[in-house]
Amino acid sequence: MQYQADWLTRFMELVTVTGKLTRCALGAPWAIEYSPAGTQEMQYHVVLTGRALLENSDNGATYELRAGDIALLPHGSAHVLHDGSGAAPVPSRVRDSGGLLVKENSGAGEALDMLCGRFVVAPPHDRLIRSYLPSELVVRTEDIGIAAQSLPQAERLSRLVALMRAEAMDNEVGSGAILNALSSALFALTLRAAVEAGQARTGVLALAAHPRLSPAATAIFNDPARAWTLPELAGLCSMSRATFQRHFQASLGRSAMDLLIDIRMSAAANALRKSTSSTEAVADLVGYQSVSAFRRVFAQRMGVTPGDWRQRALKDGAPHLSDDEADGAGERDRAGE
What we know:
Elements: H1 7-14, E1 17-27, E2 31-34, E3 41-49, E4 51-56, E5 62-66, E6 69-73, E7 79-82, E8 92-97, E9 100-105, E10 111-121, H2 125-132, E11 137-140, H3 144-150, H4 152-170, H5 175-197, H6 204-209, H7 214-222, H8 230-236, H9 241-252, H10 256-274, H11 279-285, H12 291-302, H13 306-315, H14 323-335
């Protein structure tokens, strides 16, 4: 019997996320401009003490961030953080403190202590992130007066932020490495807290928050190789096919079949990068009996053929194949393309 995990566990197994961060210890007036992140990066900010204003340059959204707030920008949007005074910012400098970079200035106004980082998403999963997560998420963990009862995930996230704050403040041996490792847990907990708070209107977070659609989402994430049909998925949700299609499209912003194909192609990309298996074996692994159909869909979604993707992944430092294995894999891919 196949182990049934929740959607977030499967999502995190599918998408490789690591983190790199700096600590910002600034006094007002201050301002930091962030250019758009790279295609495989998304910025985040954790306010430890003080307050900051975040302005998303792409869509004009503005948020006031307070101590304990976490802002995540999955689309890598250009944005500005500032103290809100409108005064010319005091110049800042960056120093290395035990492996953790610290940005600081000599501003004498209200103090801010903040962790600013970037989640690095292994390709091609950056496409999955930007297709199914909103442009920004702001999770507030200091509203713990009610969170302990009504938002338990926010309380857990608050504890993680407290641990990260202690590591940043104490600057013990290995603090930089520990903070980077905690970033992956921060990403997962932020998504879970956002689902619990019902923050996202569309996308995978909105889908996960929909009580009637979650059985279909869980089934797709757990067994993407299965030849799911719309009536089967609708039946899991006790809906008619038409009602299921309408609600699924409204919640996710895409159809159930779109989600299924994207998960299959992401799983295939992982298998091609890590495995010595032939393209035929990978196609079968993700539910395609026709290798030509698999190649066609992979190229449509990923922009490259499975063979080109494998070679690119190997060149970029994926687990090494012997020369004979790599040549054989490439020949098998090219033979049917």
